[in-house]
Amino acid sequence: MSEKLSEKPPTPPPKEEEEEEIVINPLDLTAAKLTCDDGVKRILTTMHGYKQSYKHTDVQLVLGWLACLIGGGVCAWSYTVTFEESKQLVGIAVGIYATLSAVLWLHAKLVIANKVFTGKRKTLQGRIETSSIQIRSSSINASTNAPPKYEIQVEYRRTANFGKSLINAKKTLSSIPYPDLFSSRGVFQHKQFTAFINKSTREVDD
User: Fold this and answer.
1) Cα Rg of the chain, angstroms
2) What confidence score (pLDDT) does residue 1 get?
3) ∠ Cα 179 44 110 (to 5°)
4) Residue 18's pLDDT is what?
5) Which residues cross the membrane (predicted)?
6) Potential cystine with 187: which of 29, 45, 120, 183 (Cβ 3.0-4.6 Å)?
7) How many CB atoms lie within 10 A of CB 157?
8) What pLDDT was estimated at residue 10?
9) 125 φ, ψ (degrees, to nearest 5)
10) Closest Cα to residue 172, out of 128, 151, 203, 206?
């Protein structure tokens, strides 16, 4: 079989002494969110046994490289001929480059949006079951009565019979204040963040 099956996904708490210390500016919400996003990927792949999908990354790379190759190739060729000979093809190349760049931007904004993790996991529960999970993240700005928060939306599906039988499908929304995840000097609290992710995934995977 191409993928390893496990009877129960492991979710042990992390050992703090084995975690690399991550320090950020605690006032920088962008850095805080990116640190948490990286933590989501690490926890789901190393502790929950999910295999991350890179489909959207591959699409971005293909579109980006294609736009660059067309633009660069035609530009280089145009230096070998006169302007009159090259202007029509250069114009077409510019149009293609602009179109691909627009598609790339739309794909990032509309398709990828705020997704930070998409993955699958196969488990053996008397039969082969496939769990699919998708996590979106965002930052909630501070208000008068509340600190800024890290929010995740978890979409989960578990199927059997090669996806033909739906066993479970849920969607949840969870959040946690950033001050609970970073110390006053900006040290990322691995243990607290892992507990938050484990609790959020347990709510959909029951």
Assistant:
1) 22
2) 46
3) 80
4) 61
5) 61-80, 92-112
6) 183
7) 18
8) 52
9) -125, 55
10) 203
The confidence score (pLDDT) of residue 135 equals 96
Two structure tokens written together for 116: 């930070």
Q: If DSSP states are collapsed to H, E and C, what string results for the chain?
A: CCCCCECCCCCCCCCHHHCCCCECCCCCHHHHHHHHHHHHHHHHHHCCCCEECCHHHHHHHHHHHHHHHHHHHHHHHHCCCCHHHHHHHHHHHHHHHHHHHHHHHHHHHHHHCCEEEEEEEEEECCCEEEEEEEEEEEEECCCCCCCCEEEEEEEEEEEECCCCEEEEEEEEEEEEEHHHCECCCCEECHHHHHHHHHHHHHCCCC
Structure tokens at 25: 């500016």
Q: Looking up tokens 């959207």, which residue turns up?
A: 56
Amino acid at 150: Y
For the stretch 59-79, pLDDT in tens is 889 988 988 888 888 888 888
> Residues 121, 157: contact at Cβ < 8 Å?
no
Nearest to 36 by CA among 146, 174, 204, 206: 174
Residue type, 199: K
Q: In degrees, to the nearest 5, what angle opens at C-alpha 75 toward C-alphas 70 and 78?
A: 125
From CA 182, how far away is CA 143, in angstroms rounded?
Answer: 18
Long-range contacts of 173-177 (CB under 8 A, 24+ apart): 174/199, 174/200, 174/203, 175/140, 175/149, 175/150, 175/151, 176/149, 176/150, 177/146, 177/147, 177/148, 177/149, 177/150
